[in-house]
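Fill in residues.
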């Protein structure tokens, strides 16, 4: 009996230990659909938002966007601006570290900015940092790299001198092009610095795995200065450009976030998932670019006629279920410093009147019925919505002008790579999402010297002169007036045909917490958590 009592006591003790123990916490994993495979994870070469979503989780700039889309301190804790508005002095956080535990220094940022502007790097987005003193000259090879207006005053103090006051400079610093790289890692590893197991990053997460066209995994960076407030252990990005497949995986609870689902699914998804369906107006324009290097798109009459024949109301309502609005200006509404954009002069005409005028213009140019045949190829990146738009536009051009229209599609990376590298085309679908809330960001795309994003190689001396004048004008009201003149000219020439002001379409699982819709469409994973 005594031994029996002993065993019972031991069992009771073990039982109490088990009852009192805390169960192991489940790993907090966010499954994030990302609408396509990134071309690169090198911040000097990224150019599309699906790349930005990833690199901004891995790296942190001097400033960042918070969950509500506001600019707040990032790697820089504070900053001062000189009285003349041209010299910023940033104080980096004392506890800002790289994922390998080494300190993030002012020289890392100075090195990163010099790397972006160095012509040898050939950074597609080098112009983002052109407000920095001598940046454009350095990038064009007209000044040595060490003349760039960035200076590490000490380990944690960075001084940036600008060419002129730039009201939106803090927003530029939150762009992926301004994300830092570890100088030590880049100098040691060269182009391999972006690889899993090699990459050293300073953001809330570090890269641990990348299987192209399957998944990309980042894990919490324990050396991040604010790691204690990062609630996710892991984020898995799925580069799925098949929107139907993305929705299916969301419905199967395999993905928590889906970006850019097919708009014709909005009503059905709202019935099933209610407020998990997010339609968020944003500073973004959906447009068609014409290759002005070749006939007939070198003729302004042809470009205007083709643009006028597109029934934007039909596209917005029938294809996008009202989630996007018809656009007749390159700059979207909603930019406070700019006001109402300058629309094309045919914006207020009825669609029937537009089509009549379009036919007359095309006839005057010698094309269409009774003239030279119109054989048009529309290029677009693979996406059901873009396919439906291209099919509808092709039908409109066929019915209005008797045009023969063919369609060509590539995956998103290949499509934009082709355009950015100067590939020839007839008409190409493109979209522009604001890098910062200023009209210049949209209008600078059509400057003749913009080799990367001026896809149709539009050249107009008057337009270039107006944009140059806007950069030199410091009075905000006068600058806005000049930019409106430039946009009015652009809409008259129609090297690009704006079709829609976009909204961002997201599916956000109700297990995701911390999500906020915002116009910049910035959603850092560090501000999100998941509930089991």
């Amino acid at each position: 009996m005594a031994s029996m009592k002993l065993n019972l006591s031991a069992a009771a003790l073990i039982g109490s230990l088990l009852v009192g123990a805390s169960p192991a916490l489940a790993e907090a994993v966010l499954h994030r659909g990302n609408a396509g495979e990134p071309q690169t994870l090198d911040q000097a070469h990224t150019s599309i938002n699906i790349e930005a979503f990833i690199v901004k989780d891995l790296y942190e700039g001097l400033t960042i966007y918070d969950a509500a889309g506001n600019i707040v301190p990032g790697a820089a804790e504070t900053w001062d601006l000189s009285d003349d508005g041209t010299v910023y002095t940033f104080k980096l956080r004392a506890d800002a570290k790289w994922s390998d535990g080494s300190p993030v220094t002012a020289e890392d940022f100075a090195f990163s900015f010099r790397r972006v502007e160095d012509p040898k790097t050939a950074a597609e987005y080098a112009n983002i940092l052109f407000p920095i003193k001598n940046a454009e000259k350095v990038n064009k090879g007209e000044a040595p790299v060490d003349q760039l207006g960035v200076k590490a005053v000490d380990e944690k103090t960075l001084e940036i001198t600008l060419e002129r006051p730039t009201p939106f400079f803090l927003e530029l610093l939150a762009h992926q092009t301004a994300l830092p790289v570890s100088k030590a890692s880049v100098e040691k590893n060269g182009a391999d610095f972006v690889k899993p197991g090699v990459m050293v990053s300073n953001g809330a997460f570090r890269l641990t795995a990348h299987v192209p066209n399957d998944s990309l995994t980042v894990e919490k960076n324990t050396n991040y200065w604010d790691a204690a407030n990062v609630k996710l252990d892991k984020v898995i990005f799925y580069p799925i450009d098949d929107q139907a497949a993305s929705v299916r995986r969301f419905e199967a609870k395999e993905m928590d976030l889906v970006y850019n689902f097919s708009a014709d699914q909005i009503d059905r998804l709202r019935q099933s998932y209610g407020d998990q369906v997010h339609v968020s107006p944003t500073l973004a324009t959906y447009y068609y670019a014409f290759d002005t290097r070749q006939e007939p798109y070198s003729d302004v009459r042809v470009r205007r006629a083709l643009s006028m024949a597109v029934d934007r109301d039909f596209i917005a309502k029938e294809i996008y279920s009202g989630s996007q609005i018809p656009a007749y200006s390159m700059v979207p509404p909603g930019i406070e410093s700019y006001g109402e954009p300058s629309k094309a002069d045919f914006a207020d005409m009825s669609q029937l009147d537009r089509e009549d005028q379009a036919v007359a213009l095309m006839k005057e140019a010698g094309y269409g019925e009774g003239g030279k045949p119109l054989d048009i190829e529309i290029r677009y990146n693979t996406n059901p919505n873009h396919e439906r738009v291209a099919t509808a536009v092709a039908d409109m051009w066929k019915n209005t002008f008797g045009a023969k229209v063919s369609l060509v599609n590539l995956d998103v990376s290949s499509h934009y790579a082709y355009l950015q590298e100067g590939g020839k085309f007839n008409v190409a679908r493109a979209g522009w999402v604001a890098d910062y809330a200023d009209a210049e960001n949209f209008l600078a795309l059509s400057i003749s010297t913009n080799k990367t994003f001026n896809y149709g190689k539009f050249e107009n001396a008057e337009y270039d002169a107006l944009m140059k004048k806007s950069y030199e004008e410091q009075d905000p009201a006068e600058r806005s007036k000049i930019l409106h003149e430039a946009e009015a000219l652009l809409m008259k020439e129609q090297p690009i045909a704006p079709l829609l002001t976009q909204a961002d379409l997201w599916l956000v699982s109700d297990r995701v917490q911390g999500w906020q819709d915002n116009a910049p469409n910035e959603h850092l994973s560090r501000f999100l958590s998941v509930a089991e």
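Residues 1-23 have pLDDT under 50 and may be disordered.
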